[in-house]
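Board notes (copied after class):
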Amino acid sequence: MKTMEQINNCPLNNKVEHGENSYSTSGLTQAGIQWTVHNGQALQVLQQLPSETFNCVITSPPYFWLRSYGVDGQIGLEESVAEYVNSITSVMDEVFRVLKNDGILFLNLGDTYYSGKGESQGQDRKSSKRRFGLRAVDKSGGLGIGLQQKSLIGIPWRVALEMVARRWILRSSIIWYRKHALPEAVKDRPKRSYENVFMFVKDRKYYFDRQILQYEDQEDMWTIVARPKATNGLKTAPFPDELVQRCLNIGCQPAGSVLDPFAGSGTTLRVAVESGRPATGIDLHPKFCNYMIDELRRL
């Protein structure tokens, strides 16, 4: 095991500027596991990475008009469903390229409702970041695709089907039952309790270890408490460690390299390196990247 002095003096443990608003920082954990954090647009950073680099990708992109992170150029605030789907799938095109042929992508996406009622005047007890003026989903016109008011848009499946049209192989639509999640304040429909975790591959033959799933009642429905690790007030939307760990257990060989192109607070990176797997994360928000770097340097 390396000492902290060896890690801090390691040539990997440095910051490389890529321009006024982007940088990359790499380091090693005390166990010698490499990590890298890139600050910048996911698509642009991915375009600079070599092909067939990663064994596993675990990510959760910003959902359509659910959060504003206060940073220019973020995905999730597009004016149409088609633009959002294209933003996500364009990034996934590059993920396809940098993923090894026997690798797996786990893509977590949540859905959104179309309201068409104009700007909301209410308060969202789940998150203050969900009330940020007139959203595209609040405007009249059905988002240009004929949606009626109160309609569930079907965002996850719109993205998934477009990815299939772009060469991805959709192997499973895993249901993540978000146990103990804060319930929605709705009266005229069932309260949502799950999200999709799509399992994609790029080749018919790929690494997959289903041994851990044999102990589950339903292999494609994962009951995982929706209580992520505290992020000291960082305004991001992390998913729980257990979700990342399960993806790694079934879809990434020991010591395999891991990528999260929408890394947020760095849950994927932290869980990956703690399990002995080198990890790379990308995020547009400088505060998120700085938080990730600080957390990873403590490992």
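Comment from the instructor: Residues 262 and 280 are 10 Å apart (CA to CA). The longest helix spans residues 81-98.
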